[in-house]
Amino acid sequence: MTIPLTEHPETGATGPVHALEVRGLVKHYPGVKALDGVDLVVRQNEVLGLAGENGAGKSTLLKALVGLVRPDAGEIWVRGEKVRLKSVVDAADHGIGMVFQEQSLVPNLTAAENIVLGSEGPGVRRGIYRWDTMRRLAQEQLDKIGSHIDPLARTDSLSFAERQMVEIAKVLRIEERTSNPPVIILDEPTSVLESKEIETLFTQVRRLREFASVVFVSHRLDEVLDVCDRVAVLRGGVSVGEMPTADAVPTDLHRLMIGSTGSDDHYHEGLAERSADEGEPRLVVKGLCGKTFRDVDLEVRAGEIVGIVGVHGSGREDVCRALFGAEPTLAGEVTLDGQPLDLSGTRAAVASGVGYVPAERKIEGMVGPMSVADNMTLTKQKSRCAGPMVVPQKQASLVDKWIERLSIRTPHRGTQIGRLSGGNQQKVVLARWLVAGDIRLLLLDHPTRGLDIGARSEVYRLMRELANSGVATVLLADSLEEAIGMSDRIIVMSDGRATTEVGCPSGGKPTPLDLVKEMV
Amino acid sequence: MTSPAQADTEDVIAPRPQPRRGVSLRDAGPPIALVVIIGIFAVLSSDFRTVGNVQNIMDAAAVLAVATCGISFVLMMGSIDLSVPGVMGASAIAVALLVANNRNGNDLGLLGVLVAILLGAALGCLSGVALVGLKVPSFMTTLGVSAVGLGVATLMFAGVQPNISDEMLRGWAVNRFLGLAYLTWIAMACVLVGWLVQRYSRLGRYAYAIGGAEEVLALSGVKVAPYKVAVFTLAGSFYALAGVMVTSQLSAGLVQAGAGYDFRAITAAVVGGTLLTGGRGGVLHSAVGVLLVTVLINGLVQVGVSPYWQGGVQGLIVVAAVSAAVIPQRRRNQVTK
After folding, report:
1. Chain A residues near residue B205 by CB distance under 8 angstroms
2. For chain A, how many structural domains are there in total?
3. B-chain residues within 8 Å CB-CB of A87?
4. Which CDD domains does the record match to this protein (chain A) (predicted)?
5. Is residue A221 part of a domain?
6. CB–CB of B333 and A346 under 8 A?
7. How far apart are the C-alpha atoms of B241 and B185, rounded to whole Å?
8. Which of the residue ranges A7-16, A248-257, A266-275 has the most confident prediction, judged by mean pLDDT?
9. Domains located in chain B, CATH noted
10. Are B175 and B53 spatial neighbours (Cβ–Cβ below 8 Å)?
11. What is the predicted ipTM?
12. Which of A51, A419, A482, B314 could bond A477 through an S-S bridge, CB–CB 3.0 to 4.6 Å?
């Protein structure tokens, strides 16, 4: 295939026209710089891998490429032409289409309808469906990827892998809108697939390369290296490098993704009063099984912080929720201070002194329109009541005490929690478990997600203080450094099993790379 | 009434049901329940299993069937419509004043029926516009439009009940074809039209898709607002026709022509397998639901259940039917509102 040559718009130099080029893309969200000047080039007929840790800016970048996010600064060039993408349709007109991570098909329609949705063309005349034409249009797209799915099958009767084929067929429909070869973005396409299905997907991706450019995003580095021609790495909203995959190994890639570690004692290791090696374990989990995890063993002593790490789909979130009774378990024994822990529901867990800070703070962690005081006393109602009645003075003095203790910055205890900054919201959520003074085990699911560095640091300090007061903590960290920095021990989970335990004492910390070797 | 066992076996033995023309076991629940209930009443009561009673049931179901047909489209989208009594009342009075009657000299005949239906379409359109334009939830907009409809009806009523003398309209309720009243045939035609719209028109398919995953439509470049307005307009026309049918039955226009039809229609649709969250069910489901509810009322009378008991018994059966329908979707910590 010959590559058309044109003048480079700015430098005037002549070079190959890239299928897609991103220059200095910037996007700010309140408190967070999601993209901080990203540069990226997608060549014709290549599969480009995009790697980066959580929060590196991958998803914001992808959304900008399909017109879902309007960047604050920077440029997007499609085949030598500068474009402003206002919507998904706009992006499709320029030949850019995306297969979304959370699948974007209408479940109760047929595959054919989903494939042509929004651009039915001759499939609908004067508002009346021509089912035969519709079927033919869809079949044409499915033929492109050699899929044998029945176009008239209902989408929710298809397997995940089949649905993904439908999505790809749907995205390929942008070829009808533009004469140029399309750019197809696949966001975490393998996260819901079995290994056999992944192989099929890779065959499809290689087939797509014949007539399109592909951007492939995945958490699994071995996959990226397997299917991509080139990998670009993002970190903290900046492009930090790229390499051809031919001679790269996962550790090279991971070194780029992680970069250097943070500032000195960001994790307040100096505060840790180590005494955790002694004493009986507080939480003992033996052979815990659930839908997504099997035979998980875990011990946490009072005052200890144990991190669980693993890639997306390792099942660690479900273990955490199961320990709080929020996820059904199939087998296993769990004891807290020697007493069997009732996992039948969250109420029993709360009564036993177990606390849980969910990852989705705004959805599961707090009631946005309610006040700081009401959110703080939400779970431990007794702390603010006399009999069945709420005693406002009792609540007020208790809440004020904790606002001061945790230095929560809020105008007043009656302020809506939704108006506080993320870090202060999270402190209120944590305080909810502390007001009654009976907390024994704290389960923290990504407690610093979406927080800026200063707020993170304060949450870390709070975690240390709680550990020093004897609370046992299970931490699902936002990043590997966080897990290493905060934990006394780290359990590595992969495919639903706890595979390894890595000691993580202050002064003898493992490196992220040590952990990655265990995770992959 | 889907039993949990049925729902489970569906998942196990039917991994790939052929969806377009075939029927899944879950969808087969309400028709099976209908057959079972008919069977039970037929055994219990000899009065129930007469041809005359079958005619009674069909005729009694006609008005509800038309109203439910309209509301099915709204429910399919995941919206709700409480404007039924208002729209029915307005159209009932309007048609009574437009055909030959004792209040004025109008004698528009079929044209009068058409105008009344257009009035209903306009009221439905108003609901839809308020929903998409002012972003007011359908629960409130349609409640308001119902009040508007009753207001319009009351103004037209003006204290004197219009009795109709139009032979055609009166004949609809009286004349029979193959043993069924004309109104019953009209209701069946409505169900057929509704089914065709649902199956073969973009409007119907998009209404279904909006209930399934509205945000996906937006991501695919579909503007959903016009379709929402169109669905409410279509539904309004159906309610208006139901109102005309009541006028035909009573030979008079009443403001209260549609009283109670809002919740009866919603109940029938839900019992038939249409989900209030949208994306499942449809016109045929609703037709089965209408028959279920009507057979139940008729059967309870026939087997001699005290009228004092009937309301409560009906309510219990409806709750049982709906809870059976949602069993497959239950999970831990589910939020139900």
Report:
1. 109, 113, 129
2. 1
3. 221
4. ABC_Carb_Monos_I, ABC_Carb_Monos_II
5. yes
6. yes
7. 13
8. A248-257
9. 30-327 (1.10.3470.10)
10. no
11. 0.79
12. A482
